[in-house]
Structure formats: C-alpha cells, structure tokens
Amino acid sequence: MSGRAQRQHPGRLTKRAEFLAVQRGLKLRGRLFLLELLARGDDDPPRVGITVTKKVGNAVERNRIRRRLREAVRVHAADDMATGTDYVIVGRREILDAPFGALKDELSRRIRGNKPARTG
Fold first, then answer.
1. How crowded is residue 13: how many other Cβ atoms within 10 Å of its Cβ?
2. What does the domain layout of the chain look like in residue ranges?
3. What is the CATH number of domain 11-113?
4. Can you give the pLDDT at residue 8?
5. What is the mean pLDDT of residues 15-23?
6. Which residues 6+ apart lie within 8 Å of 91 measured at CB?
7. Is residue 118 scored above 60 in pLDDT?
8. For every residue of 30-43, which 3-state class applies, written as one string?
C-alpha cells in the first residue's frame, strides 16, 4: 500500500425521493450548474446525484454534460465533500463549452466553501 491517504469515494443518489429531499437544503446557483446540498447528520460518506433537465438539449448533449460533471467530481471535487452530506448537481448547457479545468475548479470551490453545518 502506498503512503497516500485513502480517498473517500462518494456514494450515489439513486432514488427520486433522495433527490427531492436535497431540494430542501442549501442552493448555490452558478453559471455552469446549480449545486444543492443537505446535511444528513450522520458520518457516512457523502452521496452525489447528477441531473440534467430536458430543457438543456438532446440526449447526446445531456449525457455529455453528465459525463463531464461525473469526471469533475471523481477527479477533483470528491476530496472536498463533507461526510454525512448529500449533493445534487443540476447541469446547465454552458458546461458543454466550458474548459474542463474551469468546470472542476468551480465545482471544487463551491463545495469547499459551503460545507453545511451539522443538523440534529
């Protein structure tokens, strides 16, 4: 095993009810995406859900936006996520034209700057 610290891989939000629950939390609007977050109040790994509405474009464009967001979370932002927190990222069309470096920096900056306070 190497000397590097173990990365905590975020889980996934899969059910509609989980996505709807996060809507009650903090909303951070930006040019590239909307970030919603909600503290669950436990010490489990963070969970992430990514969604792109049909208003954004056709299926090919929506899938490309999802892939870019997933990779930005995997490569850069996962280390900044707080345990016991659910995150929903709503992608916008501008992600298609944004440089990947700008996307991952913006995502990391928003997550790092807004770790929610514990509730409960």
1. 19
2. 11-113
3. 3.30.230.10
4. 65
5. 94
6. 32, 33, 50, 51, 52, 56, 62, 65, 66, 68, 69
7. no
8. CCCEEEEEEECCCC
Buried b (16+ CB within 10 A) or exposed e, 50-66: bbbeeebeeeeebeebb
Q: What percent of the chain has pLDDT over 70?
A: 88
Asked if residues 47 and 12 have their Cβ atoms less than 8 Å apart, the reply is yes
User: Tens of pLDDT along 53-111?
Assistant: 999 999 999 999 999 999 998 887 878 888 889 999 999 999 999 999 999 889 988 88
CA angle 13, 33, 16 (to 5 degrees): 25
Token pair for residue 114? 């807004």
20-26 contacts at long range (C-beta below 8 A, 24 or more positions apart) = 21/86, 22/49, 22/86, 22/87, 22/88, 23/88, 25/86, 25/116, 26/114, 26/116
pTM, full prediction: 0.84
